[in-house]
Structure formats: C-alpha cells, structure tokens
Amino acid sequence: MTTFTIGSEPSRRTARRNLVRHFLEMVAAMIVGMAVLGACVRVICAASGQSDFYVNHDGLRAAVMAANMTIGMSVWMRHRGHGWEAIAEMGGAMVVPLVVLIGPFWAGVLSGEALIGWMHVLMLPAMVIAMRHRRDEYAQDHHRHVATSPTPSAMA
Predict the structure, then answer these.
(1) pLDDT of the chain, 156 residues: tens digit per residue
(2) Is 12 in contact with 143 (CB distance < 8 Å)?
(3) N or C, fewer C-beta in 10 Å, the chain?
(4) What is the distance between the alpha carbons of residues 94 and 64, in angstroms, rounded to a whole number?
(5) In this structure, are residues 75 and 33 in contact, taking their beta carbons and an 8 Å threshold?
(6) Helix (H, G, I), strand (E, B), or coil: what is residue 3?
C-alpha cells in the first residue's frame, strides 16, 4: 500500500491545474513511449527481414502500441513518485480500449485503422476515469508528494 505525504491541501483551482498537467504529462510520455519503442520494433523487424510484418498486422500493431504507450507512461509515473497500484490502474486504462475493440476488429466490423484510431481515442476517457479514482493523488503537485511504503506500525 502506498501513502502520500502532502505538504498542504491545494486549492480547487490548483488541484484542477495539477490534474490537467498530470494528464498532459502522461499523454506526452505515452507519445514518447510509442515513438521510441515503436521505432525499436520497426528496426528489429527490418533487421530480421520482416519490415512489412509490423505494418501488415494491425491487431499486433495495436497491442504493441498499447504496450509501448503503457511503458512510457509507467516510467514517467514512477519517476514522479506514483505507486505501483496507480501505475497498474493507468496501465489498465491503456489496455481496456484494445480489449473492447479487438473483438469487433477480428469479426471484420472494424478496419485496422479504425481499431488503432478508436483505441487511442478511448484511452483518454479511460485515463480520466482512472485519475478520478485517485483524484487526491493526481491533484497534488508532482514535485511535493513523495510515495512512501507504510511503516510496520501503520499496517497493524
């Protein structure tokens, strides 16, 4: 279990600004993860002589994109002092849209482009839902809260 040491209670306006800033930071970290790790995947595919493999398998590409975005966002969240539970919840927000959309894709209802496009669109409200679950954590100034492990006396 993770607890947070908070210097002072932020005003509503400050809390809202911190929530928006955190959301935008996570989106930026997701984009960086998708770009950097996606480039690594393309290099590996090209080096193995399968440069078209990644491009021609939309379901696999969507899963790899979700993983790359989750890795980028998780690294950033951990850097900012968030605990593993919050990181796992936000990681779930990245995967749920893929899980919801992969069935219609396999059934031929969604094209590969629609799968990837809608997956990205649905990640944003999924992130907002995860953030609302831990609103107090995300509303804090990222520079002022520090994740700590509970002390043995606190666990008793």
Answers:
(1) 555 555 555 578 877 887 888 888 889 999 999 999 999 988 998 898 887 877 778 888 999 999 999 999 999 989 888 889 989 999 999 999 999 999 999 999 999 999 999 999 999 999 888 888 877 777 676 554 444 444 444 444
(2) no
(3) C
(4) 11
(5) yes
(6) strand
Is the whole model's pTM more than 0.85, yes or no?
no
Q: Single out the residue of 23, 7, 9 nearest to residue 125, CA to CA.
A: 23
Residue type, 111: S
Q: What is the DSSP letter of 143?
A: T
DSSP string, 25-57: HHHHHHHHHHHHHHHHHHHHHHHTT-TTHHHH-
Q: Distances from the Cα of 92 to the Cαs of 23, 47, 66, 151, in angstroms? A: 15, 32, 10, 28
